[in-house]
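Run log // design_07
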């Protein structure tokens, strides 16, 4: 059974260890009488955890009252019901019992039950894990066939307001109706999604609600602007690097958002569907501004439609408004199907190339910061902001570096991961005769190992490749206008390590695949 997290599963398993001590009956309160001793009542939790099964047929049996005094649409009287009938409806027997009730009515009841069962998901408070939810599981297992057992249970914490427990006595309290009037339904849903969705207590903050409204309003304004600017945009398939990156990023976020919704992770879903989607949009716009190209309406249209569908479960009214009023879609957004993304629609090599491009620009900025840092000695001159640079690109690692990667790849293949501490690798190198060359270079090797292990924690196995899966030189040259614009440079030369002249060979040799060497020719320190 899916529990949407180990915390809930662990608590349920702990509950199984002591639940046998819970009494099955009580002498007072509400509930059904024990058949063999009517002076006692069935323990209320035992008697109230399978009512969802009865919900599936109640509309057929009841006629607007709960006490059975008025028959429902099927004309069945309560005194006609018995265990055999319920055994048939709930799947314990396949033959129709001998009864005055019409076989068509019994078949309809069974069909309704089988339509709605098993319970797909049960959502409840974390305080009910060790009692109500334990009974709910036990009774379903005891009373229904295995294929009708519950599929999942999700427990949530208790909502905090601005980091504090809600309390009328302290004034830290707001009703749902008041909150909707103050922040709108979409503003509330946005803030509640951001509040958290684990077993920990989620924190609803008024700041998040206010900011959510502003963000939603900004999204509407931007979509209006895009619709007006449509005549000035180009159309057609994604061709350029930035267009292809934008397109595959949309597809990747669809896949991730779908997974978040499947696991009931609404905080993660709003991050992906709203914030991450806007981030990839902004990167696309920045690149096109840098190179002076117009936006592609086909991509913008795909982006807006996709984002609205991803966000619709949370900011429903805003999504429907943009969908119907701005995009003029004929049907409601809630009739639209959730996008399906296939593996061939997510170009992982392209995403690696884009990550490489962004990391190279980030390294440029770090290098510039160091280069223009005020000198420690007053006699030294401070370097001005550089305007030109050379970027040396390597196509393969030195032999000893390749050996490091091969060692790490062997460990990763065997263990499925890599250790976080470099000393484990150091001990392996020292104890393995075939790694004698690395042992001789250990002072140079171990800092590299530490760096790779740190990268593995954030980048995964891609940092273990013996070469990049894309052409670094082509990526840098294709995006050179963007790099120059972003860094405010006048000229950047892209030079292959193997083609560098003798004057720069020592510098060029420091470049490795995936990590080009950036060099400011006029540097004085």
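design_07 sequence
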């Amino acid at each position: 059974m899916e529990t949407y997290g180990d915390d809930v599963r662990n608590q349920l398993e702990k509950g199984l260890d002591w639940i046998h001590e819970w009494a099955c009956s009580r002498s007072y309160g509400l509930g059904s009488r024990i058949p063999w001793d009517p002076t006692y009542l069935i323990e209320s939790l035992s008697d109230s955890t399978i009512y969802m099964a009865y919900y599936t047929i109640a509309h057929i049996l009841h006629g607007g009252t709960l006490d059975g005094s008025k028959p429902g649409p099927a004309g069945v009287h309560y005194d006609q019901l018995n265990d055999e009938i319920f055994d048939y409806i709930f799947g314990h027997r396949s033959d129709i019992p001998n009864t005055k009730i019409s076989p068509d009515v019994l078949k309809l009841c069974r069909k309704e039950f089988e339509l709605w069962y098993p319970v797909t998901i049960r959502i409840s408070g974390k305080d009910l894990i060790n009692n109500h939810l334990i009974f709910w599981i036990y009774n379903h297992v005891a009373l229904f066939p295995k294929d009708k057992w519950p599929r999942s249970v999700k427990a949530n914490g208790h909502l905090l307001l601005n980091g504090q427990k809600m309390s009328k006595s302290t004034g830290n309290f707001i009703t749902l109706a008041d909150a909707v009037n103050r922040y709108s339904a979409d503003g509330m849903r946005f803030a509640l999604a951001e509040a958290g969705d684990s077993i920990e207590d989620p924190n609803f903050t008024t700041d998040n609600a206010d900011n959510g409204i502003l963000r939603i309003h900004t999204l509407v304004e931007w979509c209006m602007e895009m619709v007006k600017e449509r005549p000035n945009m180009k159309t057609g398939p994604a061709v350029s690097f930035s267009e292809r990156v934008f397109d595959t990023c949309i597809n990747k976020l669809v896949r991730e958002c779908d997974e978040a919704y499947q696991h009931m992770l609404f905080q993660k879903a709003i991050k992906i569907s709203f914030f991450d989607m806007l981030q990839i949009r902004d990167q696309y716009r920045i690149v096109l501004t840098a190179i002076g190209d117009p936006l592609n309406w086909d991509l913008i249209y795909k982006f807006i439609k996709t984002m609205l569908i991803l966000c619709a479960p949370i900011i429903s009214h805003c999504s429907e408004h943009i969908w119907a009023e701005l995009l003029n879609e004929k049907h409601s957004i809630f009739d639209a199907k959730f996008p399906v993304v296939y593996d061939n629609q997510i170009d992982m090599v392209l995403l690696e190339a884009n990550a490489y491009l962004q990391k190279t620009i980030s390294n440029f900025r770090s290098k510039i910061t160091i280069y223009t840092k005020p000198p420690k000695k007053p006699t030294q001159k401070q370097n001005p902001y550089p305007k030109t640079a050379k970027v040396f690109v390597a196509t393969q690692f030195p032999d000893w570096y390749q050996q490091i990667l091969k060692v790490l790849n062997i460990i990763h293949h065997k263990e499925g991961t890599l250790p976080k501490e470099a000393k484990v690798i150091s001990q392996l190198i020292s104890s393995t005769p075939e790694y004698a060359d690395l042992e001789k270079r250990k002072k140079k090797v171990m800092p590299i190992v530490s760096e790779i292990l740190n990268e593995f924690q954030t980048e995964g196995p891609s940092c273990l490749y013996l070469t990049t899966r894309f052409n670094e030189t082509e990526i840098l040259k294709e995006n050179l206008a963007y790099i120059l614009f972003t860094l405010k440079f006048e000229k950047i030369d892209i030079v292959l390590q193997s083609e560098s002249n003798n004057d720069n060979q020592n510098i060029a040799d420091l470049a490795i695949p995936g990590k080009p060497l950036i060099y400011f020719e006029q540097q004085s320190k």
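Residues 397-464 form one domain.
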